[in-house]
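Feature request, filed as a ticket because there's no other form

It would be nice if the structure record came with a short human-readable summary line next to the tokens. Right now we just get the raw output. Example of a typical job, pasted below so the devs can see what we mean:
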Amino acid sequence: MPKTYVLDTNVLLHDSEALFAFRENEVVIPFAVIEEIDNQKKRQDEVGRNARHVSERLDLLRQQGRLSDGILLPQGGRLRIELNHQELTNSPVGWDAMKHDNRLVALAHHLQKTQEGGVILVTKDLNLRIKADLVGVLTEDFNSDKVNYERLYSGLTELHLSHEKIDLFYREGMLKLQEETDLFSHQFVILRNCTEASGSALARHYQNSLWALTNGDSTNWGIRALNKEQRFALELLVNDRIKVVTLVGRAGTGKTLLALAVGLEKVLEEKVYRRLLVTRPVIPMGEDLGYLPGTMGEKLRPWMQPIYDNLEFLFNNHQDPRESILHLMDEGTLIMEALTYMRGRSIPRQFILCDEAQNLSPHMIKTLITRVGEGSKIVFTGDPEQIDHPYLDASSNGLTYLVEKLKGEEIAGHITLAKGERSKVAELGAKLL
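Raw output as currently delivered:
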């Protein structure tokens, strides 16, 4: 029997296509949600764009009939806007019936009693799910774009081989696998000796062969790898045939520093790319830069400060690191830009770094990655366990979504960095606090 899904505003603002994600079931949008979407439509960020897109979608669907009566959806199921405002019977003491969240709970509670089939309130708001549970209303998170973070692809595995095969790998620099495996393209492999306790090697899998690392020990802008995961990261970053790189790890594992070092090397020394473009979510809550005082550079500075810190470290052998950085920015070789202004652009022959990508939704990640032009390389870095966005978590953010979607693609590579190298204090804090 078809179910009824009551959608909260944050679901539609997270994914404007959520209207069509429930197949043969009925989708109910409370009138209070329409009011909230209308309040968000003037924002100049992803939330505002999603609000406007939802309104456009509903306006097109309206041409089929009155939305309050319900209309058929193209993918199956029905959609209707619920106009009735129901009071919650036997509401808890202190319950404010006019609050938006409480109005949604009351409506779902009423539908549960008056119609057949299950009624589920879909929301990304944890507190609303708690409230609904208290009065017996079933709830779900919107998880069409969620991945299992506990089993997130790490980009690394182990393989046990004979002593003879490991020796052959060392001699030839590669080893052709005799049978098909479930290894992904550019997945890194720790080769273990299956007959002895000692003996191992590091390799990269590509086209059913294991290849010795060629870039892992390279020096880029004075930076060398300090552990095996950083060697794997450099292998991906330096390889110009790998166009999309994702680096996941806790604070202090070197994600951003390695990406910036390789970017500077590729742009200033090797001249592979015309420009190093660095971007990151400016304000996770979605406020536009235009509301902040000062010039564009002054507005960006607080949010880009971690990038400046890394750049000053990389330029520490210059007489005036800050002056060197400003010179590169003045001549357009180094650009720091807010994600807000990336839509609609095409970015050819640039080394692009998107830092703190865990604060992006899957749709925002798609918007950015589709800006990448011919000859460009894009690197995403972030820590899915440090998310500031109110409606994203380790399983639903754009970075983990991208890692899972691109694993195995021949122009994409991923590695999870585990060991902190910033300092003993930083590593202790990351582990224990």
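Something like this underneath would help us a lot:
The domain at 4-140 is CATH 3.40.50.1010 (Rossmann fold).
The mean pLDDT is 89.
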